[in-house]
Automatic annotation (TrEMBL):
It comes from Ilyodon furcidens (goldbreast splitfin). Coiled coil: none annotated. NCBIfam families: HAD-SF-IIA, PGP_euk. It holds the Pfam family Hydrolase_like. The keyword Ion transport does not apply. This is Pyridoxal phosphate phosphatase. The keyword Transmembrane helix does not apply. CDD domains: HAD_Pase_UmpH-like.
Amino acid sequence: MAGAFGFKGCQKIRGAQIRGLLEAKDFFLFDCDGVIWHGENAITGAAKVVNALIRRGKNVVFVTNNSTRPRENYVNKFTRLGFTDVMLDQIFSSSYCSALYLRDVVKVRGQVFVIGCEGLRMELLEAGIPCVEETDDPDATIYNCALAPDVKAVLVGHDDKLTFLKLAKASCYLRDPECLFLATDNDPFHPLSGGRILPGSGSLTAALEVASGRKATVIGKPSRFMFECISSQFRGVDPAQCLMVGDRLETDMLFGSNCGLDTMLTLTGVSQIEEAQEYRNSDLTTNHSYVPDYVVDTIADFLPAFEDMEEQND
Ligand SMILES: O=C(O)COP(=O)(O)O
Ligand SMILES: [Mg+2]
């Protein structure tokens, strides 16, 4: 897919080309982990870029598959890391969008069984969606535990306190075909320092898919639903005016393609340019949806373009 400037995918761009892109787009969607920050550390220059875009009147939103924190937590994190003007309504997390999906699309009537962190439960409760209480009985097993009545959905997100009992309970609830099976995202893993990895929600969902014999509906990237949330909150967004900036081909770039957005891969996160070139050279046309229109080493590559624009305006 060629971007607005006719570039073939995987083209590294900088300077004047980035400036052209900044002038042509008015809606910027940023992935967080691997683009804006790594864990608790901002990527060098990221705050300056985001602050400059907002100062120039561009729309900036953040689309993160991380389901572990409530949005307020992100506002504090952005402030802590030097992003001066990020507001709650610019943050679209897979937990917040899962709550919107259950409230506004499913209009769920009944309880939701959650496999996930406290941040996911908080977003659901904030949206008025009752969650099945977690048991703290150390002797509870699937043979003797109580199962809640009227569970109308099972929602799986990143859960670093996953237990066999939680998986077993979810499998029982999913025996009811009326009970929806949802996942906040399908990320398989998250790289950690020292070559370690953290299993993602996708690995927990896969376990439940095998146990239940059912397939989950994924709310987060690469599904289009997060863009639908953004579009309805900003009263209609023109995909042609958007640029999706991410670090992962199979979630961020595919999300952008699925929503008809131009896409930019930054090489500060999970995916490398060689992987993107492999997808581009693939005979399988479905693989071309993973190919970014543009590639930059880091979003800090935007900074010289702002300086050019300033000089031009002086
Ligand atoms: O940390 C994660 O779950 C991934 O988050 P991201 O979508 O912001 O990269
Ligand atoms: Mg990321």
